[in-house]
Design goal:
By secondary structure, the chain is mainly beta. The chain contains no helices and 11 strands. Strands 2, 4, 5, 6, 9, 10 and 11 form a 7-stranded mixed β-sheet that branches. A 4-stranded antiparallel β-sheet has the order 1-3-8-7, with no helix packed on it. The N and C termini lie far apart (about 40 Å).
Length: about 120
């Protein structure tokens, strides 16, 4: 079965950087789009970034454009989220997700906590 395991979360001061990683297993990684979402306490899960099979034309939420970069390494079955210029409002549990055949987000990781202190 598909497994997604996130890593790289932690506590960082405002203005700092973190790089999240999501290792995928269970099916051919390069055949599926990947994405990152986040959920802050008391709020709904929201889209952060997504990357297609080819790795071209990444999509970002307006709130992270210019600060976050999504990338993938098909040889390592891993998707990354480089987060720079972090703000306290970026504090959330970050989840990676993998698209299914109908382009829905079919599989999710367990999440990794990111806390940005002011």
């Amino acid at each position: 079965q598909v497994q997604l395991v996130e890593s790289g979360g932690g506590l960082v001061q405002a203005g700092g950087s973190l790089r999240l990683a999501c290792a995928a297993s269970g099916r051919t990684f390069r055949n599926y789009g990947m994405g990152w979402f986040r959920q802050a306490p008391g709020k709904e899960r929201q889209f952060v970034a997504a990357l297609s099979v080819s790795g071209g034309s990444p999509a970002y939420a307006d709130s992270v454009k210019g600060r976050f970069t999504i990338s993938r390494d098909n040889a390592k079955n891993t998707v990354y989220l480089q987060m720079n210029s972090l703000k306290p409002e970026d504090t959330a549990v970050y989840y990676c997700a993998q698209r299914g055949a109908k382009l829905t987000w079919d599989y999710w990781g367990q999440g990794t906590q990111v806390t940005v202190s002011s």
